[in-house]
């Protein structure tokens, strides 16, 4: 088979939702107020804090901005500013070895196989690109960053918007029919398909105890594990 490109989501697809919700988010919640107080004047941090303040009626203190961000963590908001800040917060935790990122063993094995067969692998996640690189650089299976050639986050556009996938196709320099998008979220797959990509729903039993079977809820190809997915 001609080598193709695989574009994969992270949370719920290569990796468990529980790890993100039970390890990463509580860690970010715990360290955020102190981090904002200590690093809030650094331009890379200030840029995002100012964006949050402006979008919330011009919040006038960093303590108020922190409160908004803590609320967004609890709501699992996929806001670009929050995601960028979370990447900065997690950096020290990964470096200190406080946690390693979860990646399902079936995903690791299949990604390695596809890579060895010449398929091109890229990531598209709501997590910021630096957060994605930390995640795969400090995974339970070791440093998986060399598997991936390109990384995309919501700076290219929202994951439920077809235009984001059109932008990504331009960066991959491939026709849509050569690209397969893997995700656990039906609305993301709908948007990718609108842009012409092939789509596969990852419907992992540990994350989604009630199977999202076809017809009534979606009409994407559905698998529960990466090793059910053959590209050949
Ligand atoms: C890779 S950063 C940690 C996960 C995260 O914060 C996130 O929002 C992941 O969302 P996804 O688009 O990968 O489902
Ligand atoms: Mg996901």
TrEMBL record:
<comment type="similarity">
    <text>Belongs to the HAD-like hydrolase superfamily. MasA/MtnC family.</text>
</comment>
<dbReference type="GO" id="GO:0043874">
    <property type="term" value="F:acireductone synthase activity"/>
</dbReference>
<protein>
    <recommendedName>
        <fullName>Enolase-phosphatase E1</fullName>
        <ecNumber>3.1.3.77</ecNumber>
    </recommendedName>
</protein>
<comment type="pathway">
    <text>Amino-acid biosynthesis; L-methionine biosynthesis via salvage pathway; L-methionine from S-methyl-5-thio-alpha-D-ribose 1-phosphate: step 3/6.</text>
</comment>
<dbReference type="InterPro" id="IPR023214">
    <property type="entry name" value="HAD_sf"/>
</dbReference>
<keyword id="KW-0486">Methionine biosynthesis</keyword>
<keyword id="KW-0479">Metal-binding</keyword>
<dbReference type="InterPro" id="IPR023943">
    <property type="entry name" value="Enolase-ppase_E1"/>
</dbReference>
<dbReference type="InterPro" id="IPR036412">
    <property type="entry name" value="HAD-like_sf"/>
</dbReference>
<dbReference type="Pfam" id="PF00702">
    <property type="entry name" value="Hydrolase"/>
</dbReference>
<keyword id="KW-0028">Amino-acid biosynthesis</keyword>
<comment type="subunit">
    <text>Monomer.</text>
</comment>
<keyword id="KW-0460">Magnesium</keyword>
<keyword id="KW-0378">Hydrolase</keyword>
<comment type="pathway">
    <text>Amino-acid biosynthesis; L-methionine biosynthesis via salvage pathway; L-methionine from S-methyl-5-thio-alpha-D-ribose 1-phosphate: step 4/6.</text>
</comment>
<comment type="function">
    <text>Bifunctional enzyme that catalyzes the enolization of 2,3-diketo-5-methylthiopentyl-1-phosphate (DK-MTP-1-P) into the intermediate 2-hydroxy-3-keto-5-methylthiopentenyl-1-phosphate (HK-MTPenyl-1-P), which is then dephosphorylated to form the acireductone 1,2-dihydroxy-3-keto-5-methylthiopentene (DHK-MTPene).</text>
</comment>
<dbReference type="InterPro" id="IPR006439">
    <property type="entry name" value="HAD-SF_hydro_IA"/>
</dbReference>
